[in-house]
Amino acid sequence: MTKILNLTKKAKEVYEDNKAKGFWGGYDDPKTRISQSTALIHSEVSEMLEGHRKGHSVDINSLTLPSEKHFKKWFEDTIKSSIEDEFADILIRTLDLAGALNLELEVNIEYEKHYLDFYDLVNHLHALCDEIYNNQESPEVPIKVLVSTLFQSTSYLNTSLYIHMDLKLKYNKLRPYKHGKNY
Protein backbone atom coordinates (compact mmCIF):
# COMPACT_ATOMS: atom_id res chain seq x y z
CA MET A 1 0.00 0.00 0.00
CA THR A 2 1.30 3.44 -0.95
CA LYS A 3 0.14 6.63 0.72
CA ILE A 4 0.99 10.21 -0.22
CA LEU A 5 1.56 12.64 2.63
CA ASN A 6 1.81 16.38 2.19
CA LEU A 7 3.93 17.68 5.04
CA THR A 8 4.65 21.14 3.60
CA LYS A 9 2.38 22.92 6.12
CA LYS A 10 3.81 20.94 9.05
CA ALA A 11 7.36 21.71 7.88
CA LYS A 12 6.55 25.44 7.86
CA GLU A 13 5.01 25.19 11.36
CA VAL A 14 8.05 23.38 12.74
CA TYR A 15 10.41 25.88 11.12
CA GLU A 16 8.47 28.90 12.45
CA ASP A 17 8.33 27.40 15.97
CA ASN A 18 12.06 26.69 15.92
CA LYS A 19 12.81 30.14 14.56
CA ALA A 20 10.80 31.66 17.43
CA LYS A 21 12.86 29.55 19.87
CA GLY A 22 16.05 31.10 18.43
CA PHE A 23 17.37 28.19 16.41
CA TRP A 24 17.68 30.03 13.11
CA GLY A 25 19.15 33.35 14.25
CA GLY A 26 22.02 34.32 11.94
CA TYR A 27 21.66 31.30 9.65
CA ASP A 28 20.23 32.83 6.50
CA ASP A 29 22.79 31.22 4.19
CA PRO A 30 21.28 27.99 2.76
CA LYS A 31 24.66 26.21 2.85
CA THR A 32 25.02 26.93 6.58
CA ARG A 33 21.43 25.80 7.16
CA ILE A 34 22.01 22.49 5.43
CA SER A 35 25.41 21.93 7.04
CA GLN A 36 24.18 22.51 10.59
CA SER A 37 20.89 20.69 10.06
CA THR A 38 22.44 17.54 8.61
CA ALA A 39 24.94 17.40 11.48
CA LEU A 40 22.06 17.62 13.96
CA ILE A 41 20.01 15.01 12.08
CA HIS A 42 23.06 12.71 12.20
CA SER A 43 23.18 13.20 15.97
CA GLU A 44 19.48 12.29 16.31
CA VAL A 45 20.04 9.10 14.28
CA SER A 46 22.87 8.19 16.67
CA GLU A 47 20.61 8.93 19.66
CA MET A 48 17.98 6.62 18.14
CA LEU A 49 20.62 3.88 17.95
CA GLU A 50 21.50 4.52 21.59
CA GLY A 51 17.82 4.20 22.57
CA HIS A 52 17.75 0.90 20.71
CA ARG A 53 20.94 -0.28 22.47
CA LYS A 54 19.34 0.49 25.84
CA GLY A 55 16.08 -1.21 24.84
CA HIS A 56 14.16 2.00 25.58
CA SER A 57 10.95 1.68 23.62
CA VAL A 58 7.49 3.05 24.43
CA ASP A 59 4.13 1.51 23.62
CA ILE A 60 2.15 4.72 23.31
CA ASN A 61 -1.13 2.79 23.22
CA SER A 62 -0.56 1.52 26.75
CA LEU A 63 0.04 4.97 28.22
CA THR A 64 -2.39 7.47 29.69
CA LEU A 65 -1.69 11.08 28.87
CA PRO A 66 -1.34 13.26 31.97
CA SER A 67 -2.91 16.61 32.64
CA GLU A 68 -1.28 19.67 31.07
CA LYS A 69 0.23 20.51 34.45
CA HIS A 70 2.14 17.21 34.59
CA PHE A 71 2.90 16.77 30.90
CA LYS A 72 6.54 17.90 30.89
CA LYS A 73 7.61 15.64 33.76
CA TRP A 74 5.58 12.72 32.36
CA PHE A 75 7.24 13.14 28.96
CA GLU A 76 10.74 13.29 30.49
CA ASP A 77 10.09 10.23 32.68
CA THR A 78 8.27 8.13 30.09
CA ILE A 79 8.99 9.10 26.48
CA LYS A 80 12.23 11.10 26.34
CA SER A 81 15.19 9.35 24.66
CA SER A 82 13.12 6.33 23.62
CA ILE A 83 13.56 4.94 20.12
CA GLU A 84 10.21 6.46 19.16
CA ASP A 85 11.15 9.86 20.60
CA GLU A 86 14.37 9.87 18.57
CA PHE A 87 12.46 8.91 15.41
CA ALA A 88 10.28 11.96 16.10
CA ASP A 89 13.39 14.12 16.64
CA ILE A 90 14.81 13.02 13.28
CA LEU A 91 11.51 13.88 11.60
CA ILE A 92 11.25 17.25 13.37
CA ARG A 93 14.80 18.25 12.42
CA THR A 94 14.16 17.17 8.83
CA LEU A 95 10.85 19.06 8.66
CA ASP A 96 12.60 22.09 10.14
CA LEU A 97 15.19 22.02 7.36
CA ALA A 98 12.51 21.53 4.69
CA GLY A 99 10.60 24.50 6.12
CA ALA A 100 13.74 26.65 6.24
CA LEU A 101 14.44 25.82 2.60
CA ASN A 102 10.78 26.45 1.68
CA LEU A 103 10.45 23.01 0.08
CA GLU A 104 7.21 21.42 -1.07
CA LEU A 105 7.22 18.25 0.99
CA GLU A 106 4.90 15.72 -0.55
CA VAL A 107 6.21 12.21 0.11
CA ASN A 108 5.21 8.71 -0.98
CA ILE A 109 5.10 6.17 1.80
CA GLU A 110 5.34 2.54 0.71
CA TYR A 111 4.12 0.69 3.77
CA GLU A 112 5.15 -2.72 2.43
CA LYS A 113 8.81 -1.68 2.39
CA HIS A 114 10.67 -1.94 5.67
CA TYR A 115 14.05 -2.59 7.19
CA LEU A 116 14.37 -5.93 8.94
CA ASP A 117 17.74 -5.00 10.38
CA PHE A 118 17.80 -1.93 12.65
CA TYR A 119 21.48 -1.29 11.91
CA ASP A 120 20.76 -1.23 8.16
CA LEU A 121 18.13 1.42 8.88
CA VAL A 122 20.58 3.48 10.93
CA ASN A 123 23.22 3.27 8.19
CA HIS A 124 20.63 4.18 5.55
CA LEU A 125 19.52 7.25 7.54
CA HIS A 126 23.13 8.39 7.97
CA ALA A 127 23.70 7.90 4.23
CA LEU A 128 20.63 10.02 3.47
CA CYS A 129 21.99 12.79 5.73
CA ASP A 130 25.23 12.67 3.74
CA GLU A 131 23.25 12.81 0.51
CA ILE A 132 21.37 15.92 1.69
CA TYR A 133 24.68 17.56 2.60
CA ASN A 134 26.37 16.55 -0.64
CA ASN A 135 23.45 17.79 -2.78
CA GLN A 136 23.00 21.22 -1.25
CA GLU A 137 21.86 22.73 -4.55
CA SER A 138 18.91 20.32 -4.69
CA PRO A 139 18.37 18.54 -1.34
CA GLU A 140 14.65 17.96 -1.90
CA VAL A 141 14.83 14.33 -3.10
CA PRO A 142 17.02 12.95 -0.26
CA ILE A 143 14.92 14.90 2.27
CA LYS A 144 11.76 13.27 0.90
CA VAL A 145 13.39 9.82 0.93
CA LEU A 146 14.49 10.33 4.54
CA VAL A 147 10.98 11.33 5.65
CA SER A 148 9.44 8.43 3.72
CA THR A 149 11.92 6.01 5.31
CA LEU A 150 11.01 7.24 8.79
CA PHE A 151 7.29 6.65 8.22
CA GLN A 152 7.88 3.25 6.64
CA SER A 153 10.12 2.15 9.51
CA THR A 154 7.87 3.32 12.33
CA SER A 155 4.93 1.60 10.66
CA TYR A 156 6.92 -1.62 10.65
CA LEU A 157 7.75 -1.07 14.34
CA ASN A 158 4.00 -0.72 14.93
CA THR A 159 4.14 2.79 16.33
CA SER A 160 2.72 6.11 15.20
CA LEU A 161 5.30 8.65 14.14
CA TYR A 162 2.57 11.30 14.02
CA ILE A 163 1.66 10.77 17.67
CA HIS A 164 5.29 10.83 18.79
CA MET A 165 6.00 13.92 16.68
CA ASP A 166 3.01 15.76 18.18
CA LEU A 167 4.03 14.77 21.72
CA LYS A 168 7.61 15.95 21.11
CA LEU A 169 6.46 19.23 19.57
CA LYS A 170 4.22 19.82 22.60
CA TYR A 171 7.15 19.07 24.90
CA ASN A 172 9.46 21.35 22.91
CA LYS A 173 7.06 24.28 23.38
CA LEU A 174 7.53 23.90 27.14
CA ARG A 175 11.32 24.08 26.88
CA PRO A 176 13.39 27.26 27.27
CA TYR A 177 14.81 29.40 24.48
CA LYS A 178 17.04 27.23 22.22
CA HIS A 179 16.07 24.42 24.62
CA GLY A 180 18.77 25.76 26.94
CA LYS A 181 21.54 25.09 24.39
CA ASN A 182 23.87 27.30 22.37
CA TYR A 183 22.30 26.36 19.01
Structural features, described:
By secondary structure, the chain is mainly alpha-helical. It has one domain. It is built from seven helices and two strands. Helix 2 (30-54) runs antiparallel to helix 4, helix 2 runs antiparallel to helix 5 and helix 4 (83-100) crosses helix 7 (161-173). The termini are far apart.
Compact overview of the structure:
This protein has 183 residues and is mainly α. It has helices at 8-20, 30-54, 71-78, 83-100, 118-134, 140-156, 161-173, and strands spanning 2-6, 106-110.
Key descriptive features of the protein:
two-stranded antiparallel ribbon; 183 residues; single chain; globular; 61% helix; mainly alpha
Structural class: mainly alpha
Give the strand content. 5-15%
Specify Rg, calculated over alpha carbons. Answer: 16 Å
Most strands sheet: 2 strands, antiparallel
Uncertain spans, ≥5 residues at pLDDT below 50?
A: none
State the shape: globular
Q: What portion of residues is helical?
A: 55-70%
Q: Gap between N and C termini, in Å?
A: 39 Å
Helix run count: 7
Order of helices and strands: EHHHHEHHH
Mean pLDDT: 91
The total count of strands amounts to 2
Q: What's the number of structural domains?
A: 1
Question: How are the strands of the biggest sheet laid out side by side?
Answer: 1-2
